[in-house]
Amino acid sequence: MARMMKAGILHGAGEISCELIPVPEAGSKEVLVAIKVTGICGSDVSRFLRGISPYGFKILGHECAGEVVKVGSEVTGVKSGERVAIMPVIPCRHCDFCRAGEYSLCDNFIRLGTRVDGCFAEYVKVASENLLKLPSTVDYESASLLEPCSVALHTVKRAGITLGDVVVVLGCGPIGLLIAQWAKILGARKVFAVDIAEVKLGIARKTGITDCINAKAKDPVEVVMRETKGRGADLVLEAAGSETTLEQSIRMTRKLGKISLLGLVEKDVTLPQKTITDIMRRELTIYGVYDADTKPVPFNSWEASLHFIETGRLDVKSLITHRFRIDEIKSVFEKISRKREDFNKVLFVF
User: How far apart are CA 215 and CA 245, in angstroms?
Assistant: First the structure.
């Protein structure tokens, strides 16, 4: 009789439930990981609301850490019992982008929880190349945040930061808060954190970001322009994905400044003609950001994130506001999608 496990099964738009299903069988080149902690990403909530994708997967989740419990016959360098985080992007390793080391841009990529079953389950099977071994000093909760940490670092790397830059982060969800921390670590002189939720700004202050702007109370563009004596920010990182913040990101950026766009946009955006003209007249550079890079040069964002978590320079624990069991997945997703509470990073703990 097949071993069974608990998993969150997506049945359709707004329909998810915890069910018992067979534990997946790891192939000869794969490992089976017992999930200890997994985080909910904003993209998981979007997929929950949209329902089943054309790829046919049923289990969401891609931010996770756990213990290796079974190793395929052809796998080397990994042993049962090792503690690991899972890098969710599975590249083809043959297309032009993979050959260039740009695995997150793979033409044929597969991703846990988006094209194949993910980690909202007690067990998941993955290729051994997708594992990052954890030092004993990094707990599973912290390790489960390695994926958003790596995305945040890639967002800052993508645009580049110069020592002494004035940086603005629009949106203080988990990735926005991590972006703000990375900006400080990488040499920003001043980092503004902007949001409309005072709870999220409180978390930003807890992580060491002192220049916080509540956009409900003050116009963030006016504040940034005043604080920079009319010059504007050197780098703006848009992590909210709203029409308002997209326009603000352009209006508050200095001439020859840079903008990174990461926030998930859920509907069409229309920008005023003057704002578009500002992009041209100020000669702004706008970067798109998708996922996290794993290439070794100039450095691997996952390994760098693990180092800064281990050394205590990157605060991930302050971002965690809720912990649940996988049995509660239906009510948790309903609460998050309906915004019944103030959530930041939400974890399922197994």
Answer: 10
Within-domain flag for 305? no
CB atoms within 10 A of CB 334: 13
Based on the fold, state whether residues 20 and 69 are members of the same structural domain: yes
Spatial contact of 275 and 247, defined as CB atoms under 8 Å apart = yes
If asked whether residues 17 and 136 sit together in one domain, one would say yes
Same-domain pairing of 88 and 167? no
Q: What is the pLDDT of residues 14-73, one digit of tens each?
A: 999 999 999 999 999 999 999 999 999 999 999 999 886 667 789 999 999 999 999 999
The CA-atom distances, in angstroms, between 316 and each of 179, 192, 310 are: 12, 19, 11
Same domain, 9 and 141: yes
State the pTM of this model: 0.94
Same domain, 93 and 170: no
Q: Tell me which H or E stretch contains 45.
A: helix 42-50
CB-based contacts of 91, cutoff 8 Å, min separation 6:
98, 103, 104, 106, 108, 109
62, 111 Cβ separation under 8 angstroms: yes
Specify the number of domains making up the chain.
Answer: 2
Q: Tally Cβ neighbours within 10 Å of residue 216.
A: 9
Cis peptide before 298 (omega within 30 of 0): yes
Q: Which CATH number characterizes residue 14's domain?
A: 3.90.180.10
For residues 263, 269, 275 and 278, what is the CA-based torsion angle, rounded to 10 degrees? 60
Domain boundaries, position 26:
4-145+316-349
138 and 28 both lie in a single domain: yes
* Alpha carbons 110 and 93: distance in angstroms, whole number: 11
Residue 266, SS3 per DSSP: coil
* Size (the chain), residues: 350
DSSP secondary structure letter of residue 96? H
314/13 Cα distance (integer angstroms): 36
- pLDDT tens for each residue of 244-297: 999 999 999 999 999 999 998 888 888 999 999 999 999 999 999 988 887 776
pLDDT digits (tens, 9 = 90+) for 173-211: 999 999 999 999 999 999 999 999 999 999 999 999 999
Angle between helices 243-251 and 273-281 (to 10 degrees): 40
Contacts (Cβ under 8 Å, ≥6 apart) of 281: none
